[in-house]
Amino acid sequence: MPAHDVLIIGAGLAGQRAALAAAENGASVAIMSKVHPVRSHSVAAAGGINAAISVDDDWHSHAYDTVKGSDFLGDQDAIEVMCSEAPKEVMDLEHMGVTFHRNDKGEMDLRAFGGASMKRTAYVADITGQALLHVLYEQLLKHHETVARYEEWFTTSLLRDDAGRCCGAIARDVRSGRMEAFTAKNVILACGGAGQAYKPTTNGLIVTGDGIAMAYRAGAPLMDMEMVQYHPTCLVETGILITEGARGEGAHLLNANGERFMEKSAPNKMELASRDVVSRAEQIEINEARGVGPNGAGIFLDVTVVPRKRTLEALREIVNLGKDFAGVDITREPIMIRPGQHYIMGGVKTDVDGRTPIEGLYAAGEVACVSVHGGNRLGANSLLDTLIFGRRSGEHAAARAANMGMPDVKDANAQLLEDATHIDGIIARPRDGRRVSEIKSELGETMNRHAAVFRDEAGLQSALETIGRLREQSQLAWIDDRGTVFNQDVLGAIELGYMIDCAETTVVAALERKESRGAQFRTDYPERNDQEWLKHIDITLDGDGGSGAGGPKVTYSPVTITQWQPEERKY
Amino acid sequence: MPETHDRPPEQFKLRLRRYDPESGDAPYWDEHTIELEPHRSVLEAVLQAKDRFDGSIGIRCSCRQAICGSCGVRVNGEPALACHTHLDAAKRGARDGVIEIEPMGNMPVIKDLIVDMDDVHWKKIRRVTPWLIAKQPVPEREYIVSKEAMVDVTQTMACIQCGACVSDCLAMEVDPGFIGPAALAKAYRFVGDPRDDQHFERLNDLAQDPQGIFDCTHCFKCVDACPKDVNPMGQIMRLRRIAIDDHHIVDQNNGERHEAAFTTLIKDNGLLWEAELLPRSYGGNSWFGKFAPPAGKELLSSLPAILKALVRGKVTPMGALKPHRIPKQDLKAVQAIYDKVESRPERYELNLYITGEDEPVKESPGDPVAAGVTHEVGGSEPAPTGAEPSDFPSSANGPQEG
Asked: For the ranges A296-310, B201-215, B305-319, which has the lowest average pLDDT?
């Protein structure tokens, strides 16, 4: 049985950063991912990473912008940690080799981004996530002696010992189908969000809420699950993301009358208000018949106002995306976009060292909820979140590992057998239920209809009922692939279960929060209500956990406020 | 309004190369008919077949937007990202109207469209010491480096490791040990990075390795294959130029002498003088090269091939002894090109990441600054940053002339 000080599940930015930090702090590390690390969805992050590195900037300003962006639901102690450590983190990444673009003086250049009071976003063209991810992978290759890489291993469940501590995981080698129990002193979940529970979404097909669901099933609380970010600029048909960097470089949003409608909702920041504000404004235009394109379902993003040379240099990726995926030359004509599911602010509840309430279990990145994003994440804060809390988790886990022996997990083989039996059961299902793909599609459409930019009680209730039905159907859903080598079909069935857990907790939390804050806009409760709802909604799996027998149970936890009292939010 | 948004779905036929390693059967073809709008991708078509008809179809994929690099396949025999290939274009390129999708080449197939990239691709990436060896001392803040240098290495940074270039590399087909286009492009990412401290060591290593930068045969296959305009062969040529011109590395593979002989012969004669090329490549770049011992040895070992060519009339003794002739004014024109190129204060390097647009760029040709990244063209507002011409010398990237 492989045994490591620190086992990291997920190899995007948070996971790789955690691996590096743990290795540099003397731990033996394993990093495991269901895909090759450079395929992780961090690769798609385009616009940049926020840090107050300019001499005119101050991390307090960054922190305030983040607090305000979160609609005052973010925990200010965590936000202070993230923003104060940001400049050093970004410099460390620069020293590792990230090719951040420069200004004329040869210093790191900064671009404007939504919700920020000044230019504070460092970038590599519009492939910042890719550059960061590939550079971190370079570092993993450099540290190959202390970091074991399990590439293309799919995690099926977390291991806990008798005392309830997390001490490893069960995983399946995707290539061979072999199951293995991994023992670890600490497990760091870094496997991203759950965007595929929505259809369409900007997220990749691999983003299926694995870590959120596994932690939830192991008894960890989830927090802020109702807060789902809709990105203002996604291609109408496919949901593919057009970076906020476009608006950062000066692009306009126009309705069917050619008006810059952001004037109405954000007269100062205009297109660079925070994402929840812009997405809502767009949706109002669309709902009130001022949208463009077929069925008026879109909004124009006009990049032609950005100097063409600058676009080609700094927004090259979206020039190609426009050409390849929408047939539009964005340097010559506006492109049709609309809001689309992009990010979940919620996740596994952690402290500023990535610790969940389950001893030995950490979480970092989109899977986690520290909460630094609260009700709405600012653009270019997610890369920062992954790096800061990935690193802090890795450091803390390494320190914890140094003071303890390797846990003895008596039940590991029994749990391995249970998971293997479950997989065999899926493969053997008779073909009389629905296909996994059909259920997934209905789940995504349901979420996109009822748990999107605008929500209300009736819609959310109907979503909850649908999810309950889909859960039952998913337990009988059948697949085609009977093999063991690269059986993606059976993994898809397991992922469907993960996504249903994420969708259910999202809807339960959205029903619970009877106010409008950040990304949660309840048409039946259109005002923010600090009196009653300036608090986090935590959701745990009722019952003893693991069996999935219980349902979601709601509790509350306070929002940490240090320096900034809630005030009216205007852009 | 772009027309693509209103096009109705159409039926497309797919022919997928299937292979089930557990069945013991040979690979086979599997056909499915799917329905999608013509501008949707081949990946979406495969996924529709997978969702509706057969979930056992194996293909790696995630982002659907050509950034994760998972879905490298061959479409109608050509390497491509499935998500980056439109159905209508794929149908036009099909032999019989059926879009043919196969796993990539040069790599062993694991299942269906999934190949094993470890031994061929990733092992070679590891071969080039793929991490920054930072100049010391490490500054407190960022390294101060030119804007152009960072934009320039972004072209190779943009490599998504999809393997399309490896799939189609002809040199690798002949010499599987060739480090290959992707890994050498990765090497340029460090050699082009002014923060790296080991440019000479990296270049010397790759030049002396018989399967390094001089193993590339200039076939341009990787340039065509790359979905991200990384231009791997261009990066390999830049590694050669930097190794030879800037670091004066003379390699044991005769790569440096071969290039010198090639260019000298064309400059002197206007056309290649094949008979002189081999002795000069081995013995040194002059008429006397053939008398150097290494050249003698090589000529001796090549004797059977030379004799065979003589017997078959492919070369004549006279043709070998005398160079080809071209009219004097043509020779002058050729030499004028040399003069023009060699008189430049700095090498021009084409960076597709910046200037790789099909349509002509509006700047005046030949202005080295204009073709870089720093000029604003045709905009109504000043660029937020970078709108001023830079003071940095732009040796690392430059314009395509004309």
From this structure: B305-319
Residue range A3-47+67-100+127-227+343-402, CATH number: 3.50.50.60
* Residue A511 CA to its chain's centroid (Å): 21
| Chain B residues touching A324 at Cβ < 8 A | 66, 84, 86
**Any idea which fold B8-115 has?**
Ubiquitin-like (UB roll) (3.10.20)
Calculate how close chain A gets to B198, using CA atoms only, in Å: 14
What tens digit of pLDDT does each residue of A358-369 get? 999 999 999 999
Correct CATH for B118-246 of 3.40.50.720, 1.10.260.40, 1.10.1370.40, 1.10.1060.10: 1.10.1060.10
Do A394 and A132 form a contact (C-beta atoms < 8 A)? no
The reply to whether B25 touches chain A by the CB within 8 Å rule is: no
What residues are paired with B41 via a beta bridge?
B86
Which CATH number, 3.40.190.10, 3.90.700.10, 1.10.230.10, 3.40.50.12240, labels domain A229-339? 3.90.700.10
Active site includes A39? no
Distance CA(B130)–CA(B263), nearest Å, equals 32
CATH number of the A412-533 domain? 1.20.58.100
- pLDDT tens digit string along A187-204? 999 999 999 999 999 999
- Tell me how far apart the alpha carbons of residues B153 and A72 are, in angstroms, rounded to a whole number: 40
A200: preceding bond cis by omega (within 30 degrees): yes
* Mean of per-residue pLDDT scores for chain A: 95
Chain segment A224-282, per-residue pLDDT in tens: 999 999 999 999 988 899 999 999 999 999 999 999 999 999 999 999 999 999 999 99
DSSP collapsed to 3 states, A244-261: CHHHHCCCEEECCCCCCC
Q: Which of B122, B157, B392 to mutate to test the interface with A (most CBs of A within 10 A)?
A: B157
ipTM over 0.90: yes
The active-site residue out of A165, A275, A391, A455 is A275
Select the residue of B117, B147, B375 nearest A309 (Cβ to Cβ).
B375
- Min CA distance, B128 vs chain A (Å)? 11
Residue of B7, B44, B67 to mutate, interface with A, max A Cβ within 10 Å: B67
B68-93 pLDDT per residue, tens: 999 999 999 999 999 999 999 999 99
Nearest by CB to B147, from A102, A204, A206: name it.
A102
Cβ contacts of B55 on chain A, cutoff 8 Å: 435-437, 479-481, 488-489, 492
Residues 6+ apart with CB under 8 A from B127: B179, B183
Sorted by where each begins, the domain ranges of chain B are: 8-115, 118-246, 255-342
**What is the DSSP code (8-state) at residue B97?**
S
Residue A182 has pLDDT above 70, yes or no: yes
The predicted model scores a pTM of 0.92
